[in-house]
Write a structure and sequence with these properties.
- The protein is an alpha+beta fold.
- The chain has a single domain, classed as Gcn5-related N-acetyltransferase (GNAT) (Aminopeptidase).
- The chain is built from five helices and eight strands; from the N terminus they run E-E-H-H-E-E-E-H-E-H-E-E-H.
- It is globular and about 45 Å long.
Length: 183
C-alpha cells in the first residue's frame, strides 16, 4: 500500500515481531490504547503475541508508516479462524481488521480518518475481499464513529471472551459510497 492523502503518504510494511516489539510495546501500553487490552503487557508479552500472529496462517500484522516513519499498526485476519470463529456466519471474501494509531505529542487533524481509509483501501485492493468485518468494544464510541465514516454498518452486539463487541460490516460498495465514489 502507498496512499498519498491530505496528511502525507501512508505505506505499510510487514511487522517484524523482534525488531518492532519495543515500538509496539510503547504503543499498546499507552493510555490511549486502552481498548487494545495490553495496558499491563511486558515487552516480552508483546513480542510473544506478535510472534504468534506472524506464525499464524490466517492472521497478519503490519506497521503503517507516515512519510516513512512508524505511525500505526494494522492487523488483517480471516474471521473464520481468528477472533470471530463461531460467533457469526462468515461469507466468502470476509476479512477481519484491527488498527491502532500510535500515540503522539503532535496530533495531525484528520490523521486517524486518513489511516482507517488507507487501511480499507489496502484491504479492498485484494479483489478477493468482499466485506471487511470489525468487532470493537461496544463502549468505544470514537472507533464506532470512524467505522461509520468509512461505511461500516453495525449488525449486532456479540460476546467475545474478552469483551462485549459491536459486530460491524463494510462492503466494497459501502466503502466507496462513504468516500463519495460512484459505484
Amino acid at each position: 500500500m502507498s496512499a498519498t492523502t491530505g496528511i502525507g503518504t501512508l505505506t505499510v510494511r510487514p511487522l517484524d515481531p523482534l525488531r518492532d516489539a519495543e515500538l509496539l510495546h510503547s504503543w499498546v501500553t499507552h493510555p490511549k490504547a486502552a481498548y487494545w487490552m495490553m495496558q499491563d503487557a511486558k515487552l516480552q508479552d508483546v513480542e510473544r503475541e506478535y510472534m504468534r500472529i506472524a506464525a499464524h496462517e490466517h492472521h497478519d500484522a503490519f506497521i503503517g508508516l507516515h512519510e516513512g516513519r512508524p505511525a500505526f499498526l494494522m492487523e488483517k485476519y480471516d474471521p473464520r479462524y481468528v477472533e470471530l470463529e463461531g460467533l457469526y456466519d462468515p461469507e466468502p471474501g470476509d476479512v477481519g481488521m484491527h488498527f491502532l494509531v500510535a500515540p503522539t505529542d503532535r496530533p495531525i487533524h484528520g490523521f486517524t480518518r486518513a489511516v482507517i481509509t488507507a487501511v480499507m483501501d489496502e484491504l479492498f485492493a485484494d479483489p478477493r475481499t468482499r466485506r471487511v468485518v470489525v468487532e470493537p468494544d461496544v463502549s468505544n464510541k470514537a472507533v464506532h464513529a470512524l467505522n461509520e465514516a468509512v461505511g461500516f454498518v453495525p449488525e449486532r452486539e456479540i460476546d467475545k471472551p474478552e469483551k462485549r463487541a459491536l459486530l460491524s460490516f463494510c462492503t466494497r460498495a459501502q466503502f466507496l459510497a462513504a468516500r463519495g465514489v460512484a459505484v
